[in-house]
Amino acid sequence: MSTPPEPSESKNLYVMDSESAGEMARLMNQDILATKNMGGLLAERPDFANIHDILDLACGPGGWVMEVAFAQPEIQVVGVDISQRMIEYAQVQALVQRLDNAHFMVMDIMQPLDFSDASFDLVNARTISFLPPTAWPKLIQECMRITRPGGLIRLTEGEGFGITNSAALSKLDGMLTKALLVAGQSFSPDGRSIGITPMLGHFLHEAGCQNIQSRAHAIDFSAWTEAHNAWYHHYKISLKLLQPFLIRVGVTTQEEQDELYDQLLMEMLSPDFCAVAFSLTVMGEKP
Questions:
Q1: How many CB atoms are located within 10 Å of the residue 164 CB?
Q2: Which of 99, 122, 133, 189 makes the best surface tag, with the fewest CB within 10 Å?
Q3: Distance (Å, whole) CA 205 – CA 150
Q4: Is 218 exposed, middle or buried (0-12, 13-18, 19+ CB in 10 A)?
Q5: Which DSSP helix (H) or strand (E) runs through 213?
Q6: pLDDT for the residue 18
């Protein structure tokens, strides 16, 4: 099996094919699920008071950007992503929906961000845990640079596929966390987790943020819950798209993935299926 590239050798470290139509559809669904699970577009605050310009990092097809732009027409919202296809799709959707305050740009967030100092009141990032550990401090420093004094940096991440009684989902979760460790895209010392959630507050503290607050989110998507059907379809797409990454880094084979995938779909449709997924939002203020 091939050896994965060092993080510094690869420009796009995303663990799925960021140019595929399947991944675009998955991200659109993920945006909806994440916002609902988090309690709204900016649930940590009562409203968007004193926020005039927002940046969303690694925005994908722009779901969160367009939702904010629609709900807050007086706010300018910018989304950036490394994928040309994602950005082109988002631009078309913003045009069709007549969201003149939604803007999209192709940009690699592992490079210096192409914005002037103090450009935004809120810099938002959700689910960018694929970045290697060395990239995070640099990115947060760039976020501090482009955030206005009194502005906010908001980070939201999860830790894999959740806690479940599904043998297949548990095994696939272990493969993902091990693969990220092998690929140099993990904070875990042993590969039993991604290790990103406890780091979020640390990043903001080290960058000089103040008034750092955290908010945990849990979603029960067991068989009898309202959330089950949406999450079943989410994992049905996600775990098929994730297979090439897991195979490439050498933690599994295609044959094993095919067997686990079929097993997972059966187990998730069982009336006894139980699962809870967790994520954490940490937000800090620039002095």
A1: 20
A2: 189
A3: 15
A4: exposed
A5: strand 210-220
A6: 67
In a domain, 80, yes or no: yes
The C-alpha angle 159, 161, 166, rounded to 5 degrees, equals: 140
Q: Is residue 2 assigned to a domain?
A: no
- Kindly state the tokens that stand for 107: 């940009």
Q: How far apart are CA 52 and CA 73, in angstroms?
A: 10
Of 119, 136, 155, 127, which is closest to residue 63 (Cα–Cα)?
Answer: 127
Query: 0.90 exceeded by the pTM?
Result: yes
Q: Is 263 a member of any domain?
A: yes
Helix runs in the chain, H state only: 21-37, 63-71, 84-96, 135-146, 167-182, 200-207, 228-241, 243-248, 254-268
Tokens of 256: 């094993």
- Paired tokens of 13: 């470290």
Asked, for residue 205, whether it belongs to a domain, the answer is: yes
Spatial contact of 133 and 187, defined as CB atoms under 8 Å apart: yes
Residue 13 pLDDT level (bands cut at 50, 70, 90): low
Identify the three-state secondary structure at position 241.
helix
